């Protein structure tokens, strides 16, 4: 399972990219708005940091024609751009056109198996299923993504599955066990994934024991 960062904070992206654990970046209009910078400026900064890894940038139009125009403009920025398209009838039209042109697409805001199947059949390179938001309305986000993966495997669907709206470690572990292709996470989860109280305890014990080792006088 590859790990993407779901952020537009270039400082956070650089910090974790330098660790070698980041395989790509996802953004959306909400995330971009938090930076206080122009959209294209932020996307270009991210492209510069991740050096060829996928950078997901979302269209804002709600009609197919507008999505197609924006998608082409975004794709022209850099070969690493993945055009995010919302899951809706107009979005499916746009995905079909863009995919036929060889543009990499990611259908976002997927909350059901049928939506995932339609996105894949329209030609989406990636399909983003939202876990946390499904949980918020009494659903089971992990069960959803397990079902999507099962169906994609059953029918040989090549679209890759992205787990989005990831809130906590349970989501990350559940995604890994389910066989998710990509888990895009907020940067705040990285320390929790890397740390463990027993690791800290073990390191402290090693340091205490090392003080007891005789040294030459």
- Rg, rounded, reads 20 Å
The CATH level-2 architecture is identified as Alpha-Beta Barrel
Order of strands side by side in the largest beta sheet? 1-2-3-4-5-6-7-8
Principal-axes geometry comes out as globular
Superfamily at the CATH H level? Aldolase class I
Biggest pleated sheet: 8 strands, parallel, barrel
Strand content: 15-25%
List strands and helices in order, with pairings.
Layout: E1 2-6, H1 10-17, E2 24-26, H2 29-33, H3 39-50, E3 55-58, H4 64-77, E4 81-86, H5 89-100, E5 105-110, H6 113-121, E6 126-130, H7 132-136, H8 141-154, E7 160-164, H9 169-178, E8 182-185, H10 190-194, H11 197-210
Parallel strand pairs: 1-2, 1-8, 2-3, 3-4, 4-5, 5-6, 6-7, 7-8
Polypeptide structure, described:
The chain is of the alpha/beta class. The protein has one domain (2-210): TIM Barrel (Alpha-Beta Barrel), CATH 3.20.20. Helices cover 50% and strands 18% of the residues. The protein contains eleven helices and eight strands. It has helices at residues 10-17, 29-33, 39-50, 64-77, 89-100, 113-121, 132-136, 141-154, 169-178, 190-194, 197-210; strands spanning 2-6, 24-26, 55-58, 81-86, 105-110, 126-130, 160-164, 182-185. Strands 1-2-3-4-5-6-7-8 form an eight-stranded parallel barrel, surrounded by six helices. Helix 4 (64-77) crosses helix 5 (89-100) and helix 8 runs parallel beside helix 9 (169-178). The longest helix has 14 residues, at 64-77. The chain is globular and about 80 Å long. The termini are far apart. The mean pLDDT is 97.
């Amino acid at each position: 399972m590859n790990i993407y960062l779901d952020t537009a904070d270039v400082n956070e992206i650089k910090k974790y990219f330098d660790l070698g654990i980041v395989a790509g970046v996802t953004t959306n209009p909400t995330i971009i708005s938090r930076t206080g910078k122009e959209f294209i400026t932020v996307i270009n900064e991210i492209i510069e940091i991740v050096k060829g890894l996928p950078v997901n940038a979302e269209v804002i139009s709600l009609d197919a024609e507008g999505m197609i125009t924006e998608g082409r403009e975004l794709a022209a920025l850099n070969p690493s751009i993945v055009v995010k398209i919302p899951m809706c009838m107009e979005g499916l039209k746009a995905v079909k056109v863009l995919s036929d042109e060889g543009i990499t697409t990611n259908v976002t805001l997927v909350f059901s198996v049928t939506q995932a199947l339609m996105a894949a059949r329209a030609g989406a390179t990636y399909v983003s299923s939202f876990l946390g938001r499904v949980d918020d309305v009494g659903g089971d986000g992990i069960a959803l993504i397990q079902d999507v993966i099962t169906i994609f495997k059953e029918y040989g669907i090549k679209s890759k599955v992205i787990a989005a709206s990831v809130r906590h470690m349970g989501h990350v572990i559940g995604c890994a066990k389910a066989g998710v292709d990509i888990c895009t996470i907020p940067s705040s989860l990285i320390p929790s994934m890397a740390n463990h109280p027993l690791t800290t305890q073990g390191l402290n014990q090693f340091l205490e024991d090392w003080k007891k080792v005789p040294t030459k006088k």
